Amino acid sequence: MLISAHRKWLLLVTLPCVWARPARAADSVEINYAADAGCPDVAAFREELAARVAHTLDFSSPAAHRIRVQIHVDSAGTRADLRIEAEGREPTTRQFQTATCDEAVRALAFVAALALDSEAATAPTGAFGDVPAQGVAAPAQVTAAPAASPPANPQANPRATAPAAADLAASSEAASRTSRARREGFSGAAAAADFRASRLERARIELGPLALVAWGPAKTALFAGGVGISLARPPSFRGYSPSATLSLATARTGVVGPAVSEARFDWTSAELDGCPVRVPIASSAWSFSPCAAIQLGSVSVVGRAPFVSTPVSASRLWAAVGVSTKLEFRRGAWFADLGAGALPVLTRYQFVFQVPRRDVYDTPWIGFFLHARAGLSL
Questions:
Q1: Are residues 199 and 95 in contact, defined by beta-carbon separation less than 8 angstroms?
Q2: What is the CATH number of the domain that holds 46?
């Protein structure tokens, strides 16, 4: 079908009108902002956020969207934590490690803007005159340009419509990419989950010394020392943050803790804890994790004089499995955690002296454990 040049220009001029969307009401946003000295303040964050969304933002309360920002600077760089809450949606959390505070504010504003507007601007806003955070994969920004008036003689330049058609195709492709991303499950800040500059997007290794108190392996409380190493992923936007911790500990009665008059108890244990989720408490620095735990090790008992004339050592397998909990605190590369567990004992024994006959200790059905650990994230 042939279309005259005049009708082609009419089609290009009227398409933006056909595709125009109705005006969107202002989004109400509440911002809880905390940053170390020397970082941009909350006003700069609001300006950066407002510059990226196409509609008006209302920062009065009550608000439909709550954005919490924490920025901390240490020797390793700048750590930024973001939590976005919206009515009827799961909270979104993100963590970034950047070189400067300005980069952190831009990255957080970019993620928050995507949570409010899937077509948020990804190009530099110039809010504080710098370039965007390195590593942010920014799709091409689509802007609506006013339609140009047709030339007096369209036939004199038959290629005049080519640039407009190319812009229209680019706009359509960008809209298609945004729609496809949303269909694949990216919601708001989740669309920025691939912030490539963030070292926290990789699984982290945590290593540190361990102190443990155990009730069950011996007749009295055992005070053990050891080391713990963890492998953990950063929290996702649905709070899924699996981690696994291997703890190695050893203890002997009468060394650090109380002694037993009849015998000496030695306990060695390797404990594996698996924690599927990390629940933030009060701030992103504190969190709580429910875990499943298994312990394997050995218990050795040797009699003491004058209860036995010839002391003999007896060693037995120690095995227990159950549940534990962990309260964690993180600040930059440092971490500390406190844990407690109740583990039914799978290997129960009765320790006795044969000559003369004397009961020493019966292993209980359940062992109880407390631990404290601190160290560095590698």
A1: no
A2: 3.30.160.100
Reported residue count of the chain is: 378
Are the beta carbons of 318 and 269 closer than 8 angstroms? yes
- Structure tokens, 251: 């203890």
Structural domain range at position 371: 202-377
What interhelical angle do 42-52 and 101-116 show, nearest 10? 50
Is the same domain home to 334 and 210? yes
Q: Are 246 and 224 in contact (CB under 8 A)?
A: no
Per-residue pLDDT at 320: 97
Tell me the two tokens of residue 105: 């504010």
Instruction: Tell me the Cα Rg of the chain.
Output: 31
Contact present, 72 and 59 (Cβ < 8 Å): no
* Spatial separation of the C-alpha atoms in residues 214 and 223, rounded to whole Å: 7
- Contact present, 268 and 242 (Cβ < 8 Å): no
User: Are 72 and 101 contacting, i.e. CB atoms less than 8 angstroms apart?
Assistant: no
Instruction: Select from 126, 161, 192 the last residue of a domain.
Output: 192
- Mean pLDDT per block of 10 residues along the chain (378 residues) reads 48 47 68 89 88 80 82 84 83 85 88 79 56 38 43 45 44 48 42 41 82 95 95 64 93 91 93 90 81 96 82 90 93 90 94 79 94 91
What are the residues whose beta carbons fall under 8 Å from the beta carbon of 63, sequence distance 6 or more? 28, 29, 30
What pLDDT is stored for residue 212 in this prediction?
95
Residue 56: per-residue pLDDT: 80
